[in-house]
Write a structure and sequence with these properties.
GO terms for molecular function: DNA-binding transcription repressor activity, RNA polymerase II-specific; metallocarboxypeptidase activity; RNA polymerase II transcription regulatory region sequence-specific DNA binding; zinc ion binding. Keywords: Glycoprotein. It holds the Pfam family F5_F8_type_C. By secondary structure, the chain is of the alpha+beta class. It contains 14 helices and 26 strands. The protein starts with 14 loop residues before the first strand and ends with a helix.
Length: 708
């Protein structure tokens, strides 16, 4: 197994070099897969580089214990400008760092052949293991400048010399399957867990990958397969990148742990399973993992990881949730896998031509819409921190003096925008980071750059690594779910021997974060007959982010402790407002709402009769404009004509009934009139004009009369 250069188990002071080109290219930067900073030529470059081209330079690692070395993995410099890598080297060993023995083939010093490019890792195995404490690499030939990234393989044969490291070595007591699982092994393990705990587990799939592999999920609940009213739904997802295997294995271990502890009567686990519907998806990108798992054998994980998880120029679901297509230079083939879908947690990449997302992306989005998730996290790798929304940083608005920006303009200081639930997200992120055994130990810095978390292990995504179209932003803007990204460590694909340590590091954090789904308020929205109201809106005063009720009328809203003014609104109902108190203890406050029906339906019918135009209300005492006065006079005249017609009809009907032979009236009307031409007033259907006239003139009749 690797001794830990990439995972940072080897400290900076355990790596020495004969020289360095500058501080940013020192020995501490010579770790496998070390990435350069945003600006090259700073303190955080992408390799160790010697100060000149002498063959006397070396890179040394102190394991602080007797170790049986079995090989090394070399890599060139991470750079967009330089093409530096070592092509051949010697290896030396020592027990005191003073006397060195070169590795030989029995006749002469053995030459090992390294890289042919700067990115692809190359494994060099020793024909026979060597036992020592120190190991040195002596580069002999290289391309460009003498630059190197390194990982050393070996097994410890004695106790560690450092007291600090010894105190932090943990051996798990849980009887779990600590090994890497292929797709077939993963499916078999999930089946075994389901057979051991059939009453609380259920296996289902949320869709298929581009290559036809099913994306399996496991539900853990006391009533699997059924959404219980009042029970929140939680999700953990992993495997967004094919080469990030730690999250996948942690979720498989969590399945086993929940099953065993539930059967053993663990009250904490029993309460969590009984009161929560838990969904675990260990591999959102099964295609990418299979390729990465195979590439591990030839140590080309990083290269495969870039191909299958970097997005490769694909578009994204933007800030407003609208899809943006792939670059014309990349076809749908390049967008396959969740390289095609969820890059670093991104809902990325739509297929060229039809504008629709990849199969994985569509499956995940449909799954998110189908289930009323309240809280979730996606497990990733490459750093050790918790990231929360927003992940998108909007460009700063241009000033008039600056003029238009060029098309290739890049804002060095984009505008950061916090979510309305920023304080809630910080609480959730801290709940995971603080329970992790090493995540808040930031004095060593980050994996590739200085600590960006202010020694807390948490950071807003836009502040750290701004990008558009992430799963976190999509979940927050388009669903009820609060989603975070959990970066588990520097080593994306740790050795099997390290899985026990990683499980112990994350076990308490995984449980604590799931328990946060029961913080805040919850309840049911019904009508006066007790029927649930689906899709009702829950509004919390002072927080501009609303949630909606599920099909059973139930809702959940994660909130920090405090007092909140909460209202429930629904189409066709009068809103209801309550004051809800959230306590510090785990357990959501019950806030139910009963809504009464409103007369908005009748009001809309009346508005439709008026042509959906606003109904003007004349306020007494406010002077009218000349235009309003003219319109009012025209309506009054029309009303007087209608009243005169009604009076004449009644008069004509009375005369006809009392004296059928009476002579006709000598008073001639100014318009032709027939008693059979009009229906009786009580039977005439109202028209938009008469209704509008009645509505507007009744209020002002007295006022207008006095004015005239």
């Amino acid at each position: 197994p690797p001794i830990g250069l990439e995972s940072h188990r080897i400290e900076d002071d355990q790596i020495l070099a004969s020289s360095m080109l500058r501080h940013g290219l020192g020995a501490q930067r010579g770790r496998l897969n070390m990435q350069a900073g945003t600006n090259e030529d700073d303190f955080y470059d992408g390799a160790w580089c010697a100060e000149d081209d002498s063959r006397a330079h070396w890179l040394e690692v102190d394991t602080r214990r007797i170790t049986m070395f079995t090989g090394v993995i070399t890599q060139g410099r991470d750079s967009q400008i330089h093409d530096d890598f070592v092509t051949s080297f010697y290896v030396g060993f020592s027990n005191d760092s003073q006397h060195w023995v070169m590795y030989s083939n029995g006749y002469e010093e053995m030459m090992f052949y390294g890289n042919v490019d700067k990115d692809t890792p190359v494994l060099s195995e020793f024909p026979e293991p060597a036992v020592a404490r120190y190991i040195r690499i002596y580069p002999q030939r290289w391309n460009g400048s003498l630059c190197l990234r390194l990982e050393v393989l070996g097994c410890p044969l004695s106790a560690v010399s450092s007291y600090y490291t010894q105190q932090n070595e943990v051996t798990s007591t849980d009887n779990l399957d600590f090994r890497h699982h292929s797709y077939k092994d993963m499916r078999q393990l999930m089946k075994v867990v389901n057979e051991e705990c059939p009453t609380i587990t259920r296996i289902y799939n949320i869709g298929k990958s581009s290559r036809g592999l099913k994306i399996y999920a496991m539900e853990v609940s006391d009533n699997p397969g059924e959404h219980e009213t009042g029970e929140p739904e939680f999700r953990y997802t992993a495997g967004l990148h094919g080469n990030e295997a730690l999250g996948r294995e942690l979720l498989l271990l969590l399945m086993q742990f929940l099953c065993k502890e539930y059967q053993d009567g663990n009250p904490r686990v029993r309460g969590l399973v009984t009161d929560t519907r838990i969904h675990l998806v260990p591999s959102l990108n099964p295609d990418g993992y299979e390729l990465a798992h195979e590439a591990v054998r030839v140590q080309q994980v990083e290269e495969w990881g870039r191909m299958w998880s970097a997005g490769m120029g694909c578009g994204s679901v933007g800030w407003d949730g609208k899809a943006v297509g792939c670059s014309p230079t990349f076809t749908a083939h390049h967008c396959s896998g969740l390289a095609a879908g969820l890059q670093a947690g991104h809902l990325r990449c739509v297929r060229e031509g039809d504008g629709t997302g990849s199969m994985e992306t569509r499956a995940v989005m449909a799954w998110m819409d189908k289930n009323p998730f309240v809280l979730g996290a996606n497990l990733q790798g490459g750093e050790k921190l918790v990231s929360f929304p927003f992940d998108t940083a909007r460009p700063s608005p241009p000033t008039p003096a600056a003029g238009p920006r060029p098309l290739d303009y890049e804002d060095e200081r984009p505008e950061l925008q916090e979510t309305p639930d920023h304080a809630v997200f910080r609480w959730l992120a801290i709940s995971y980071a603080s329970a992790h055994l090493t995540m808040t130990e930031t004095f060593r810095g980050g994996c590739h750059a200085p600590d960006v978390t202010d020694a807390m292990g948490i950071v807003q995504g836009a502040k750290w690594h701004p990008r558009a179209g992430t799963m976190n932003d999509f979940s927050y803007l388009h669903t009820n779910c609060l989603e975070l990204s959990i970066y588990l460590g520097c080593d994306k694909f740790p050795h099997e021997s390290e899985l026990q340590q990683e499980w112990e590091n994350n076990k308490e954090s995984l449980l604590t974060f799931m328990e946060q789904v029961h913080r805040g308020i919850k309840g049911v929205v019904t009508d006066q007959q007790g029927e649930p109201i689906a899709n009702a809106t829950i509004v919390v005063g002072g927080i501009n982010h609303n949630v909606r009720t599920a099909s059973g009328g139930d809702y959940w809203r994660i909130l920090n402790p405090g007092e909140y003014r909460v209202s429930a609104r629904a189409e066709g109902y009068n809103p209801s407002v309550k004051t809800c108190h959230v306590l510090y203890d785990i357990g959501a406050t019950q806030c139910n709402f009963v809504l009464s029906r409103s007369n908005w339906k009748r009001i809309r019918e009346i508005m439709a009769m008026n042509g959906n135009r606003p109904i003007r209300r004349v306020v007494p005492g406010r002077p009218m404009t000349p235009r309003e006065r003219l319109r009012l006079r025209m309506r009054l005249r029309h009303r007087m004509r209608l009243r005169e017609q009604m009076r004449l009809r009644r008069l004509n009907a009375t005369v006809t009934t009392s004296s059928p032979t009476a002579p006709p009236s000598s008073t001639a009307l100014p318009f032709p009139f027939s008693s059979t031409a009009y229906m009786p007033w009580s039977q005439e259907p109202p028209t938009a004009g008469t209704w509008e006239m009645d509505t507007e003139t009744e209020v002002v009749t007295e006022l207008v009369t006095e004015t005239e």
